[in-house]
Each structure stands twice: as structure tokens, then as C-alpha cells.
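In full, the data.
>
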Amino acid sequence: MDVKSELPEFRHNPSSGDWVIIATSRFKRPHFRIKRERRIIQPKKDCPFCPERIKEQLSPLACLSRKEENSFNFSWSEKKKGKICPDWKIIALPNKFPALMNKATKDRIKVKKKGVYQIVPGVGFHEVIVYRRHFKQLNQFSQRDLEEAISFWQQRFLVLEKEKNIRYISFFTNFGQEAGASLEHPHSQIIAAPIFDRDFERSLKSSFEHQKKFGGCVHCQMIKSSLKEKKRILLENKDFVALIPFAPTMDFETRIYPKKHQNRFQDISSQEIISFASVLKKILEMIKKKLKNPSFNFFIRTSPVVVGSDDYSYYHWHLVILPRVSIWGGFEFSAGMQIISIFPEQAASFLRGEK
């Protein structure tokens, strides 16, 4: 890929308040090459997520069966512990090595103060969503596979948001060692926590302040601007648009937004699931082909669980895909500002297959 050096730019992200540097001369560094990763696939005989060994794991929370593709079984407390759906396609399990203690609490969690410090008990839920086929990653899923997966994610959100003390639900998928995946068997994770991170809090605040000042959603205005310019648009359909942000946090960062304003992922309709799956499938295939099947992370940013009077209606949910084609250095960590090696307009043109 030939990237012409241009005058660097500082670009501002109005939805987060962050600045990034676009410096295409960085693309010419000796180690920066879009190259196919050497990936070692774990044998099925050693995989803890394959059907032959899944029954040995912790009791399942929910599953989608091949024979009941339009039904979900979520009331596992009413069933015998450890029962597995026959011919399951997707299954949710408690994480064997959870970041949070998987437990419900009756009382409201309180912040404990210790001098200048604050502590919140690490209770919540950490689930693994496992897809059946060992050698079929999400970027190889069929349209129907993705529709089922998205429906499954939605159902887990709807279940977890009802738990006491849950403020935020984080869904994410890691693919490849460079993206932090410890197992190659296709899977995703959900963490439901009593707090959310500072970066997301800033994004919520920026969205709120923009609506208060300008009377509209900052993400809607960004989408409208991108659709008008067209240079950063990767593809779109009736309900969703995929684009590279004006000020991305990583090279080739891609976002998928619902076109209409919608603050909660879990509120999407059946028709929207089909549209969302269609765009996600094409984008994952595009990244796999043009970036030579890189490691990647993708996650959903959606409104927090409502507690109190704020319903977060000013937020706009979206899915973020981060291909791991570059590595952060000292400046990114010390300054809190990313250096992007390719202009988003060039990155979009490249992924679209243009010269």
C-alpha cells in the first residue's frame, strides 16, 4: 500500500473531546507493513470450548439450539444445573477466570473511601459466549450466523440489565493473539459492572453537553456529515452505516452506527438485526481481505443501565472495530494522544478496494 506523505494534522473528536495526530510519514516506518499474521490454531482435541468438552465447564446460562433457532432458554435457575441445550449453536457460560465475582447482590453497592482513594466491591457478571464451530471465526460467519449471534447478544443484555447494581454492560470480541485472545475457538465476552470507565464517562458527558448546546445528537451530526462527504463511508444500507471516524483512535478503526437515533443496542428490532448483521458481515470480510486477516477487537458502546432520572437518551450506540495493524508507543501513553499513520479518507478508500 502506497501512502503519500502529507502535512500532519491534529484532529478533534467531538464525541469524546480527544485530539489525535494524523502523520502519514509514520506509515513508512520499517516495521509498519500490512502483512498476514502467522496464526497457530489450537487443535480441537485440546480446546475447552468444543462441544466434546463444553459439558465439563461451569453450568450454562443460556444457549441457542440448532433445532430451536428462534427460541432462547434463559431461565436456567428453573432447570437442572449443568444441562446443555441439545445441538447447541451458541452458548453462554460464566467465565472460568472472571474479572468480576459472578454474583447478584440484594443491597446497593456503596463506594468505600480510604483516605484519598475509593474502592468499589468487584461484583458483577463476566460471561463467555461460545460459538460452536472451532474453525469458523466471526469474519467467516454467514448472514444467518451473525443474525443469530446478534440476537443472542441482545438477549444477554436484556437479562443482565435487570440485575441489581449493574450500571454498564460491556460486550467485546478479541480475535488473534495481538488482540488479547487467549483461545482461538470463536467466542465473545460480556462484563456487567457496577461502574463504567472514565473514557466512556467523558463520551457521555460530551454527548450530553452537545445536545444541550446545539439541540441534537453529536453522533447523528457526525453521521450526517460523513454521509454528505462520503470519503470515510465504507458501506451503508437502510438502517446502518459503516465508516472510519474523522479522528480515529487507531489505524483503520471502523464504526457501525444505526442511522436513526437509538441509544440502546438491546432495543434494536428483528429487522434491524438483519440489517446490522448484513453490514457487520461485509465489514469483517473487508478487513480480513484488505488487511490480510489481522487480529482485531470489536465492542459495542451503548447507554448505561438507567439508575435515577438520567435516561441517557442523548447517547447513540455503535459498534467499534479495531484492527491491530499498529502498536502504540511512548507518546500515546504519555500524552494520551494517538498518532495515526494514515488519513481516514485514505484508509476508507483502501478498504473499499480503490486505487
